[in-house]
Amino acid sequence: MSALAAFFESYYRLRPVNATFTGVHDHDHRLPDWSPDGLAAAADEMRRVRGALVATRKDGPARPPRADTSVGPYGDVSAMALDDVAVRDRELAISFRRSRSAKPPSASSR
User: Fold this and answer.
1) Does residue 74 have a pLDDT over 50?
2) Which residues, 6 or more positions from 69, have their beta carbon under 8 angstroms from its beta carbon?
3) How many domains does the chain have?
4) In this structure, is residue 106 part of a structural domain?
5) Is residue 77 part of a domain?
6) What's the pLDDT tens digit per position in 7-62?
7) Which terminal Cβ of the chain has fewer Cβ within 10 Å, N or C?
């Protein structure tokens, strides 16, 4: 499986609602895992998949853009940018959950 194909497999598996919306129905029966462990695992996976995309760009032969690819001629670059945003979204969600679970100081301790 190419790094770009692995990106989309991961993208749709981690974002089943997006998959359904875009016509990929392999995950119609699922919802995303927004638990703290699920968010952390998703962010780790997105970093790993992005690393694989970066590695193919650095180590692979220079190739001209292909007009026949379904994600456009610069699909791997677009995928990396999209994944960067998604990782930051997950990190923000983790941070938000942590801040919401922290107990506010009691009135007597002020």
Assistant:
1) no
2) 75
3) 1
4) no
5) yes
6) 889 989 999 998 898 888 999 999 999 898 998 899 899 889 888 877 877 555 44
7) C
Do 101 and 30 form a contact (C-beta atoms < 8 A)?
no
Expressed as residue numbers, the domain containing 81 is: 3-61+70-101
Q: Which residues contact 4 (CB under 8 A, 6 or more apart)?
A: 53, 56, 71, 75, 76, 79
46-52 long-range contacts, CB within 8 A, separation 24+? 46/10, 46/14, 46/83, 46/86, 46/87, 46/90, 47/87, 49/3, 49/6, 49/7, 49/10, 49/83, 50/7, 50/80, 50/83, 50/84, 50/87, 52/3, 52/6, 52/7
Q: How far is Cα of residue 57 from the mean position of the Cα atoms in its chain?
A: 19
Structural domain contains residue 109: no
Task: Please indicate, yes or no, whether the overall pTM of this predicted structure exceeds 0.85.
Answer: no
Neighbours of 47 (CB within 10 A): 14
* 108 domain-assigned: no
